[in-house]
Amino acid sequence: MNLPLKDPKQEAGDMTFTNPNSVRKKSALKLGASLSLLALAIPSLAQAQSDGLQLEEIVVTATRRAASLQDVPLAVSAFTAADLETRQISSTLDLVRSVPNLYGSNNTGVASANTYYIRGLGSTEQIATIDPAVSTYVDDVVLPRQNANNYGYFDLEQMEVLRGPQGTTFGRNSTGGAISVKLKKPSEEFGGFMQASYGSYDQILLRGDVNVPVSEKVLTKFTGFYTDDRGYVTNVANGERLNSLTNWGARGAVRFLPNDDVTVDVALEHMDGQGLYLRTFARDNRETILRGSTKGGTSDEVADALANRGVRADYDTTAVTANIEWRLDDVSIESITGYRTINQSFVLDFSLPASRTTVPLPFYLTNAGGYDMFSQEFKAAGNFGDRLSYVAGLYYFYENNSTLAGQVFGTSLSCSAGLYGDGNMTCNGVPGYSSVRDIRNKTTSYAAYAQFDYALTDALTAIAGVRYTNEVKKLDLRPTSYGGMTTADIVAAGMATRLETNKVTPKFGVNYKVDPDIMLFASATNGYKSGGWNSRTAYLPETFQDMSPETAWSYEAGMKSDLFDRRVRFNVTGFIAETDNLQLSYTTPGPIPGTTLSTQDNAGDIRVKGLEFELSVRPARGLDVFATLGLQDGKYTWVNPAAQSFVSPTGAYVNAIDPTDELSRLPKRSLALGATYTVPVEALHGSLTFSGEANHTGGFWTTASNSTPSAQTPTALDTFARSYTLYNLSVSYLSDDEAWRLGVECKNCSDKLYLTSVFNGYYYGEPRRIRGTLTRKF
Question: Are 156 and 138 in contact, with CB atoms under 8 Å apart?
């Protein structure tokens, strides 16, 4: 009946516990030493002559209009196509190691779903009744569901990470931030590339791209990829390989150029994949023990879970986007249309291993879902005279989701035997409700927005923006053959099935140009993410409660600078973010005395403050050095009494959230240090590029409860992730005509064991991976 998240029995003798504070002190010493070495290298650049060695300008669309990164008064990190290649960034999840105060990992169980946290705001829940705090956009079209947001492998042009609330110009409001993916557009010249990779755990990756201009006015581009990975985890119960990944996708894009003033881009893409991310033994990321088998699956997820077969996580997604841009003398008008459908099926085993030899009684989560979304935006960006520029638009979003979600314990469905009313099924001889529920929810959202930048002087600019949003969410529970609760049941229990939000989210800012290469800025930004329902663990109608919207204000000040004849780029941002009605998973009493449940609700209010540094240096021709540093700290300013720790009716202490607890998934330090060096080799008729980086993540709590074994909770899992440092290296050869590239790369080269999540077990990051890649351009 209960989700055994709290105080489950762990493997005897399989864990040792370290004082987190001592670990932090050691990590701080390493961090200080690294920064000191970097600081010693910078002053010598002041005497260097440029000789055309300036850092390239990066153009971003973080303000919904093209502008130089150094002219945008926002905390934004940007990565060009060259950055993505040399720094081994092949998916959105790879961004985590290079962006200050961004944390992310695969969601437990599902390799296609990522959970992102920016400045302490994020979500671990992918069920469709809850929205993420960090939104993902592909070519300005939102991907609102977490179940397929591990985006990658198409021909990427650029990635941008916007830190802080996005409440004004971006399509879907979010409190944590946004990840924006830009894909390459069709080219005027015929050409493309073919790429093949082979790596650890029999990983195979094939990619291809071709540009085919039909005429001067019609350009086309076709891209495809296939990847297969046997997996790095062995199920010692049956010898099966787990945490594998198989993925393929194709995309076709057409660019129409009817005249010099109009550009029409249309694209169709499809991706299909399956992949697991399951827990392993404590202090071991290569072995686990599960009763279920990955073989023998059918189209019935619940039946498969009852029969211990078909453990899996499958998804497919199809998307269509259309962008029409009309350029006039003083204004550019765009129509941005997006449609995406996602199908997801999984049977995931979250059982807690008792030992390496005892096969645990399985605990399965099942899902069969279909998710459809459509958005339409009309945007205008232009100028009134020489001093006033603006971005304004209208936005519409519609989403229709269907989720058949259930839980299976052992060989039977979870059900609420005799706990409420008559129930819809018989559980152990008495009426109750099945945990298998057919959940339908719809979202309809309308918004209007505008942002104005007014140059008070040649150096000083004032910024004001506002967005108005009307959003309606509706919930409907359909009858199931398993006896799940229905809409009538939750209405009878007094639960809301319609949520409406009318929200005004303003933004204010100012920036000052000290000189053409140094800008100071300050801003106050408001954002929110929608309310929703606690549906994953709602076993009874009265627990299907709704949540209020999560709202955030972020106050920022910073500097962007290009120094020493633009051979040094140094950006810094300081922020204070205050969030009310934080949507969070926490522990509540279960319906059966002595049991607990993990519940999604508004847990309280928090405040996070911090600093973010980004440095790029070109000390010599062919050599680029970079460093990023994120420092942050947060606390609860108020905790909902319903979310606080309690003593159960049986007298047992249950660790939920205490006002003194630290925020979850909030590493207080994140550091990246790296360099890329390219040297011509005449004898090889080409050049060699060497790249390396170190990424340090400070310790953090993986759960809101800050749970560790103690006198009160001796059998609790240790949910504190110790700090860790990962090393990535690569070397590649590029021919003089740039037709051939051969590279070898290594991720997590030191094979570091590091914790990412805890839920009924331990989830670790991937072990060392080595991969060789051959690319042929034509």
Answer: no
- The verdict on residue 3 lying in a domain is no
Q: Give the 3-state secondary structure of residue 201.
A: helix
Could you list the beta-strand ranges (E) of 590-722. Answer: 596-620, 623-639, 646-647, 653-654, 669-681, 686-697, 700-701, 720-721
DSSP string of 22-77? HHHHHHHHHHHHHHHHHHHHSGGGGG---TT-PPPP-EE-TTSS-EEGGG--S-EE
Quickly tell me which residue has 């700290």 as its tokens.
633
End-to-end CA distance of the chain: 60
Nearest to 775 by CA among 184, 191, 91, 189: 191
pLDDT (tens digit per residue) in 370-402: 999 999 999 999 999 999 999 999 999 999 999
How many CB atoms neighbour CB 357 within 10 A?
9
* 549 in any annotated domain: yes
Closest CA relative to residue 176, chosen from 500, 554, 600: 554
Q: For the segment 736-752, what is each residue's pLDDT rounded down to a tens digit?
A: 999 999 999 999 999 99
DSSP bridge pairs for 402: 370, 440
Q: Report residue 438 as tokens.
A: 């057919």
Q: Give the span between the Cα atoms of 145 and 162, in whole angstroms.
A: 18
Whether the predicted model's global pTM rises above the 0.85 cut: yes
Report d(CA 197, CA 650) in Å as an integer. Answer: 57
Report d(CA 460, CA 522) in Å as an integer.
Answer: 12
CA 160 – CA 151 distance, rounded (Å)? 13
H or E segment and range at residue 81: helix 81-86
What is the phi/psi pair of residue 663, to 5°?
Answer: -70, 145
Beta bridge partners of 163: 177
β-bridge partners, 612: 573, 630
Looking at residue 157, which CATH number applies to its domain? 2.40.170.20
Tell which residue, 524, 527, 580, 579, has the closest CA to residue 556: 524
Q: In the beta sheet, which residues pair with residue 509?
A: 463, 523
DSSP state of 378: E
Is residue 480 domain-resident?
yes
Q: Tokens 């790596």 identify what position?
A: 199
Q: Is residue 11 part of a domain?
A: no
- How does pLDDT run across 47-68, given as a tens digit for each residue? 444 466 899 999 999 999 999 9
Q: Provide the domain limits for residue 639.
A: 20-777
Cα separation values, 423 from 408, 485, 604, Å: 18, 8, 33
Q: Is residue 186 within 8 Å of 180, Cβ to Cβ? A: no
The 3-state secondary structure of 243-274 reads CCEEEEEEEEEEEEEEECCEEEEEEEEEEEEE
Burial class (CB in 10 A: 0-12, 13-18, 19+), 111: buried
Q: What is the CA radius of gyration of the chain?
A: 26
Q: Do the beta carbons of residue 139 and residue 267 sit within 8 Å? A: yes
* Best CA proximity match to 265, nearest among 224, 223, 225, 219: 219
Helix (H, G, I), strand (E, B) or coil at 148: helix
Q: How many domains does the chain have?
A: 1
| Beta-carbon count within 10 A of 299 CB | 9
